[in-house]
Amino acid sequence: MAFKACAQNCVGSLLPVIVSFLQRFRWVLSAGWLAGVCLGADLDLKSFHPSALKNFSARKAEWQSSRTNVTAAISFGRAAYELAVIAGSSAERAGVAEQGITACRGAAVQAPKEVGATYYLAMNLGELARTKLLAALKLVKELEELFLRARALDEKYDFAGPDRCLGMLYSQAPGWPTSVGSKPKAREHLRRAIELRPEYPHNWIAYAEVLNRSRDRTLLAETLKSLDDLWPKAKKALAQDVSDSSWASWEESRSALKVRLAKLSRGGRGRNDDE
Question: Rounded CA gap, 148 and 131, in Å?
Fold first, then answer.
């Protein structure tokens, strides 16, 4: 009885942490990213954006025509991720992400040194995790392993995506012993993403979000200043690589961070020691 009561107390104490994590857990790493059958189940496609749906359908058809084509599998995996991000319900998100997982997992087995297969397998698993409750925590460790593997294959892939994603994962996940969360690791990987691809705004925004959560006013101000200096050139240079919806999302995040910085400045909080 004493053991049972202890176990119940432990679970009860962890639930608020887990719920908080699941509420914050978002894998929108670069926003802007169904026609057919999802693992045997028909999906309602009406809620999806037409351009994302069109791209998903085309990439799916290419992959289905040659399931051993690794390039086609990766393209479909990316299209699935981009559609899952904007899904209107958990059921839709899970259905789309599972298709991307199927394609990319097969490609990763067939071509283990192909970074795109591992990377978009992780991205789709992240979207699937958003639809889970306690099961999401089990996926986090696999996500960490996949992003570390992708990083080892090509750390510059998707504008330093592996480091960016690792930084966001370590920032948002609960810490030990619940999960893999770590503020120092988050900063380390996001700084590395900036070092590798400083022209990509999302690397700076992701780092700024970590500084915001740490209430590090000094570094947050420096980071937002660098982002402001970068912004006009990035919009021109990345016009063909970044969707309008991504820019809109990043602009919203940048504005919110500036508001937060103003509040921190009024509060007089300076550099944080958790670096």
Answer: 23
